[in-house]
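Two quick folds needed for the group meeting slides. Do the first one here.
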Amino acid sequence: MTPLAQADSSDYGAACEESGDTRIWVSPLNPKPYSATKIMAVATDGAISDLSIVESDGRKIPLPSNSRGGPPWSLSSVVDNLADGDYRIEARRNGTLLACHPLVLGGRNAQEGQSLGWNLATEAFYSAWIEELFGAPVEENLSFPSLEPVLRDPERNFLYNHLGLNEDRNLPSTPDCADLPYTLRAYFAWKVGLPVGFRTCSRGSANSPPRCGSATVKTEFTHGIASQGNFRSVYGQLTNAVHSGSARTGLDDEATDLYPVPLNRESLWPGTVFADPYGHVLVLAQWVPQTAGRPGMLLAVDAQPDNSVTRKRFWEGTFLFANVNSAGPGFKVFRPLARSGSGALRTFSNGELVDNPSYAPFSMEQENLTPEDFYARMDKLINPKGLQPKQAFDTTLDALAEQVETRVTSVENGESYFRKGHGSFIAMPSGASIFETIGPWEDFATPSRDMRLIIAINVLNGLPNKIVRHPELFVLNGQSPQTLKAEIEDYQAQRLQERRIRYIRSDGSSWELSLADVLARKQAFEMAYNPNDCAEVRWGAKPGTDEYSTCRRHAPSEQHAKMEQYRPWFRDARRPTR
């Protein structure tokens, strides 16, 4: 919290306004004296160097601040020791005033009653809010049982109790992967007073991506402070409409909730959505710049069918990209809403978004990229100076280990379900529905996660050859790509033995595996996603071994027959078309 100290003089009588590329946001909407008041300045044209409070007598109080991002750039602080009265908040860059915002404690704040729309300022605030919501040291394994504890954490959520109604108490928020970006967008719109839109879409077919109907535009949040009941109503309608096809619409389609953007740092802000061709969805959360001692990272969050929310890094094992007729995959942002001549809200067309300075530009750039080109482009964005081959391997190994650790939790969730006595077996759907269904199978089976694990193993095993195919992505230090390929193959054998994980067996005991063990069991993971099988089977233990000896549960034979029939999908790491 900020002490009232280090005051200096300031011209309090000068105009206090936000007219440029920087906006200042305050939460709660009507802050009270001697209570925590959160302040966030957000800029779209460069970093902000300092925040300060100016009292009515001209005293200037510098605020210790937390800096994030770029672009957009944000600076946030909390004060809790101000008496009632009028103040001004100033944001500066190297001494130059960027923005000034009036602050009233014990009265009505200027933000209340403002008519806001989705524009560059609100999109930048949304991005900065997402980055702070999921902020944590990059080495931390950030995971939550659902979105609820994230939104209910006032240290994370800048908009916690923003309306002053204790509106976050018992707030329902358990989205799955498809619902997560929409839930975040709707929550933000509710707190800030913005409209929100969504469409009912098909799931597509083998030859065409999903198609959507007209937009449902909800304006309940734009008519003053909206209650939790208003949010619950919109949230319920939204989650009933949205599914995995909603983000996979064709890149050139205009009747969509999301549209594609260029692959550059200026467009890929936190809050950007990544839709993979098979239905999984992630939300960008943070760019970590490359430094001399640390590789760059692009971090994102996703939700799972069991409602858990986890932060992940960008790499080929998590962000799946493929050229398929059944989807328009890639990075996308929400299509903004605007008022027509009659005053009704409508969505922007693609043409209106090509050169519109208020929004991320529409771009078909991703349509013509092969997967290899797509990943090479992203690697260059994340690590523009290139990586040492061993550094690249360690980064990829960390991502794989992160994925395996997440699977440990998923398998244990299935074991916990059976320990609680929920029945003998979970019904298994047929065909492609094993990836998309509802109920206990969706909650505890891991076909999508296991296919991603198989892909991740392929990526790690393919890294030595990538040095030869794309030497421009690596720092070679005068060595040939072929020489470095051989060095990394030797290094891989050593590092895979060093990294280890533990899972819980059927009798409650812990069993340790090296990542070398995990990679050696790749074939077993082609049939390890069924929660009716014991944990030992799901981790690839072989019958007759000590590891396998504690197994007490097996899926019915007819389910194993189905899994054998579907095994080629996993062996080839390609989900079936619908």
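Then this one, please, same format:
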Amino acid sequence: MIILGISAFYHDSAAALIKDGDILAAAQEERFTRVKHDAGFPREAICFCLGQAGVSIEEVDHIVFFEKPFVKFERLLETYLAFAPRGFKSFKTAMPLWLKEKLFQKSMLTDFLAELEEEKPSKALKKKLKSKLLFAEHHQSHAASAFFPSPYEEAVILTMDGVGEWAAASVGVGKGNDLKIEKEILFPHSLGLLYSAFTYYTGFKVNSGEYKVMGLAPYGEPKYKDAILEHLIDVKEDGSFRLNMEYFDFATGLTMTTSKFDEVFGGPPRTGESQITQREMDLAASVQAVTEEVMDRMVKSLSEDYKGIENLCLAGGVALNCVANGKILKRNYFKNIWVQPAAGDAGGALGAALAAYYIHLNGERKATNQTDAMKGSYLGPVFDDSEIEQRLTAAGAKFKRHANDEDVVELTAKALADEKAIGWFQGRMEFGPRALGGRSIIGDARSPSMQKTLNLKVKYRESFRPFAPSVLRDDVNEWFNLDYDSPYMLLVAPVNDNKCKDMSEEQKALFGIEKLNVPRSDIPAVTHVDYSARVQTVHKQTNPKYHALISKFKDLTGCPVIVNTSFNVRGEPIVCTPEDAFKCFMGTELDMLVVGNCVLYKEEQDQKLAQDYKDAFELD
């Protein structure tokens, strides 16, 4: 039974393909089109998935969309009626698109899918494909993506995001191949949209800048937490909540917040690219503290309501808040926690396919209770060395192809120890927002200058942004206050005290981001200002070459921790192909690029080509 899942038409469109419940392929459209957060029909992602499995669209048994457009339209209409006449401008903007396209998504999807097979599709093909179309519910897709790939036979499932059709949060229970949604919090009461409102207010882009707010939070103090709880959100003991819509404009307006919001927090929103001040840092710290409190109360209540179940699964955009996840893990409300690595809408494509197989078709499920079914989330395209060599040559690259992995691992480990910034392109591309050693930029975590170098000379992004450590799973508790699998970089934990360095009174008095340049531990490049780190545990079973690299680095330095950040520059999606990797390498200050077993050094490349790529990135 082959099932294709699709998410599209909001943000982060994606496709996923499963066969008899086994996940064969999954990828976001943005990686192919190079349009960040691409919301269009995921044509390229679907073609990749079909090609990876060696099947045509006609050979797919079912095609599942990740939400129900008619129910979403019902919510839109009811919301506008409830707030009328406020929001007419937004209503007038939204209606033509819905009436022209979104209400007819079944026909539109059929047309797009048929065009994958025939340039001018026949009516017979369209009819055949239309008969295969199914529609899951948005939060059902999230819940299915969280539970079915998890290692658990039984689990409580919590999903939280902005909004789907009506639900903004849901609680379900999964057992075997069964999943039932038991509770929901409905729009407009949304923890995800509360966080997005502060994302907008602090000057970042909604649906993409939320993780910047999370990264900015440790620089501030939660001075506005009480004001948020007094004016914006009413949180009950069990974590359920209601927003005060007098302060928000997302339901029917064209912005996230109202003038009353400005009054509470002392002025208008920060404009993008303007100087970040202590106010933004304190606002970020405050909404992060509220988010953690809501999630903590909710998970505690769920552990009491479902006493016989010791496992918790998380998905939805809020589940990407790895700081909150780490704190929930420490509270031990549930014995085990598993977070879907593609927790946002991209993961809905996978969840929709899995929901169809297990819930709709009653497919057999075999949970291992040892490892999950995501295959390390390495579910995207892969290129062998011959193809890599051909592609790099055509791009004008100068490189040496080495005979074996061992030589490449040793060369790269030595370069890391010499504090080189390295592009690392290996195996299958990751599914989800995190680079996990497939499409990564890596560096020496011990270097006091590496974080600043990568942010300003390679990523071209805000200097406050923290980097994650990749650490061998066997060594994680020696360096971090964590002894738990975190393969998807979705848990934040403190650096162990014996690895930390105390800050002087003078250093403590530094303003916000100035603290960034103060070495805070033996691995300063991955230690945030609050002595925390977003940990990725590296496992030999899922990524043997990356594991071998860090092991070799440990042999050379005694340190089993390296810097890992996504292989891209600001405003660009993570690289997908060898050509993407070469372009990013040439357009930045990276010292070295390793693509499969092909090794490139910056000083050996055509400098005219380097300038061309730098100019291209600057224009973006």
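Slide caption for protein two: DSSP finds 22 helices and 21 strands in the chain.
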